[in-house]
Structure formats: structure tokens, C-alpha cells
């Protein structure tokens, strides 16, 4: 019997008993909703609180619980008892364990998949760093959160389309060109594109206060770029290409791929359609020379066109939304972007709604919290910068040192160190609710004990290693099972994995999976510490199946987060 079926059986037994005592007071669904999963195993696997009925029938809950028990058909359960105002149901553990383990092992990595998405396309706007600037920790968050959501949705049979909406257009390119022409060198850009370009840009800003003519020149260059001037276009393309190369290195390390790199510039020739449409629908207003869409008292107006005719971030996002709707006919469009852009996405949705597109309701801003350092916002100017590349590098380095110390003969040490070091960074980012802010501490990220990715990875590898040993040592075959407390705990969690994935998908919340993986790893380690696995008794097969199913689920949980699970470490 599976866990969901078991719950249904409990409900049916209660409902049948109730036809005797209190007919038509609680519907089947109501009984189902009232059923609880007790925190403490001694309270059974499901508990029915009698408070609601007690109120309806004007009797003490204890009494009601006892009356139900007296009427209850108990054959489907190992035990049913009244404890205070609760009726506690104990399942036949052996039966649930046998079906659950068989199901997990038969399904393998597919365990937990469902068909709910019906292949519908979900567009995920994620990562989206800005050209000629280093990828920030915020972009890292967007990248790993978006990537995990894509994996979770794939598991639920949706088709995600991962789009990197590169920040590759805007007046900053004029400044960059001026700076490059004045102080730049081709070799530097080739060798270290992001840092060089960043350096030029910073230098421009150091000087433009005292030399306002620099700004005029920058405007000039941006205009050239907009008009398709050859040199300007050449430079823009080159900066973009070199930046993208540097970003790709990070994506390769993280193991993240995209379906599209259509950035802001892609929409240049699609902007006039937007302004025309807004005009046609009578939504554009002129305010201080600029064109805006008024969004009522609750939102600031959307600034569509500046007085000099330049379009804005939101204009590009309007064009992008329309393009994506036409191209992918998305069921949902997710934007994985920091909470600080909430107003922007509310405006985007509101303008599209005003334009009469009912698919605007399928737009979701998947916001996430800020990463701070020492409680303060990260800032290049204030010197509070954390470079993603450094973090990844340090973490991999530490993983390498740990492996050298603990398992020096491990084959393919470097690959494993990479999986562990990078996994630590990703897991650290995903284990908290995405909307929480958190303070960045490198020591926290590269900590491998406690609630970390490497802890889950170690647990998985440890179970794998026992299974490897078993394959060479034991041949006993048997089917007898008696399920103890700590293994029962594991079985129930395994059975719950599909439900956990569904929940993570619905909430667009990878932390649901991360927390689950931590719980399962902890339960497994508890079991492992208190039992002898490789003893040739009649329970051996059961224990090995339990280990096998646990490795399958831990590995798949990590996979859904975008974290690898090495077999040995
Ligand atoms: N490039 C922007 C930034 O770094 C993020 C873009 C998010 N996506 C979007 N469609 N607006 O802030």
C-alpha cells in the first residue's frame, strides 16, 4: 500500500464509522483535510483530531474519538488507538515498506515524475547578467534558482525554455566605447574581458564629473550604435562576445545551459510595434516630454520613451513578453529576478493587462532575497564585492583538500572535488526560502558538515559504498521484513518524495527539495549509525533495498537542485 492510498483508507474507515455516530456532519473531503501526520511516531502515522466533531455534536473530543474507534473497521491497520482528543492510526509498516521500496527501485531516477505539466511550455527568464560587468551574486542566485525550477518543472512534465535576457543594450555602451577608445587595449580585453571593460567603465565615471564633454562623446557613440555605425557596431559585438565567453565559463562550472541568449538588444527592431500598439490603444500619455503609461494610484507610471526618444528597460521587457508569447505560446512566463525589481514586474504585468492581453496573468515574478555582506548591500564602489569566480574557486579548492586528507586514493579526485565544491555553493544558495535575504560568509559556503550540499553528497556516497561492498560479499536472499522506528522514518520520507516535488514546483521553491534532502540524509545517517547493514540474516535484502532506494532519491533530489552526486568521495 502506498502512503496516499493509506491516507485514503484511513479517511474511508473514519467516514464509514461516522455514518453510525454522526451521519452527514463531515464530508469525505473534510475528513481527508482534517487528517494529520503526527510529528511523533508514537502517535501513529496518521491522526484524526476530534475537535471539529466535538463542537458540532456538543460532546468531549475524547468521547467522540472513542465512539469512532468502537465503530471502526480496523482490519486495514496494524493498530488504532485513542490518545486524548486524537484517534491514531498505525499502518502495516511492512506492507508500505515493501511497495514503496519496490516502486522507487523500479522507477529509478524517474521516481517522483508526474504528468501534470502536459508538456506545456514555461518560459524562464533567468541569470540575465549585464555585458561588460562581472556577474554578481544576484545573477548567481537567479541562475541556480532558475535552473533548479526548470529541472523541477521538467520532472512534472512541463517544457521549460531557459532564456538569458542579457543586459546588452543601453547608454552605458556609449560610455564604454569612449573609455575603450581612450584608455583601452585590445590585448587586455582579450585576456581578461570583464575586468578590463569594468576598469574602463569605472575610469570613465571617475573622470566625467570634471569632464562633462566625456558624457557628450558617450551620447554621440551610443547614437552611432543605434544608427548602425560600423565601428560602434563592431565594438559592441566584440564586447558582447568577450563578455559572453567569460559568463559561459561560469555557466560551464555550474553546469547550467540556456535555450536562448536573446538579450535586450534583440528587441531593438521590435520596440516601435510596442509604442504603436500603446498609441493605438490610447494608453500613451506625454509627461514632461516623456511618454508614459499611467497605472493608477497604486503603481508609478511606466516610462516607455524618454524625451530624447530613447526606449527603456520596461519597453524592452514589453517587446520581449510579446515576442515570447508569440514564439512559445507559454503557459507561464517566470522571471527569476531579485525582489528589488518587484515594482518593475508589477508595472510590466499591468501594462500588458491594459493592452488587453489576458496571458499577462501568466506572468510571475519569481523574486529572491538580497545577498549582503556584513549586513550591508554589496557594492562595487564601497569595495564590498564578492566575485563568484573566487567563491567557486575557493570552494573547489577546499573540497580538494578534504578529499586529499580523507580519501587520497580516490580515482578521479579532481572531478569529485569539482562536484563537491560547486555543489556546496549551489546548495548553500538554494537551501533557504528564496525570498529570504542572507548574509554571505565564505566560511559558511565552504563548510561541509551540517546542513550543506556536501553532507547530502557524503550520505549518498556512503550508502553507495555499502551497496558496492554488498555486491561482492553477500548472496543471501529473503523477503521477511520487520520495520523498525528509524527505517520506517526513511520509508515514509521516500514515499513522500513525489508530493515534495509537486509542492516545490507549485511554489517555484527549490528550498523545499533542499530541506527534504537534508531531512532524508539525516534520517539515513541516524539509521546507519544504529544498525548493522551487511549481516547475512533474513532482513539483509530489505536493508539493501532500503539503501538502494535512498541513494536513488538522494541523487535525484540533488539533481533537481542542479547538484551532482558522485558515487564515491
Ligand atoms: N539585466 C538585469 C539586471 O541585471 C536583469 C534582467 C532580468 N530580466 C528581465 N526580463 N528584465 O538587473
UniProtKB/TrEMBL annotation:
A motif ('HIGH' region) lies at residues 129-139. It catalyses: tRNA(Arg) + L-arginine + ATP = L-arginyl-tRNA(Arg) + AMP + diphosphate. GO terms for cellular component: cytoplasm. This is Arginine--tRNA ligase. Its EC number is 6.1.1.19. It is found in: Cytoplasm. The keyword Nucleotide-binding applies. Signal peptide: none annotated. Monomer. One of its GO terms (molecular function) is arginine-tRNA ligase activity. Residues 456-569 form the DALR anticodon binding domain. NCBIfam families: argS (TIGR00456). It comes from the Bacteria. It comes from Bombilactobacillus apium. GO terms for biological process: arginyl-tRNA aminoacylation. The gene is argS. SMART domains: Arg_tRNA_synt_N, DALR_1. The keyword Ligase applies. Keywords: Aminoacyl-tRNA synthetase, ATP-binding, Cytoplasm, Ligase, Nucleotide-binding, Protein biosynthesis. It holds the Pfam family DALR_1. Belongs to the class-I aminoacyl-tRNA synthetase family. It is an enzyme of class 6 (ligase).
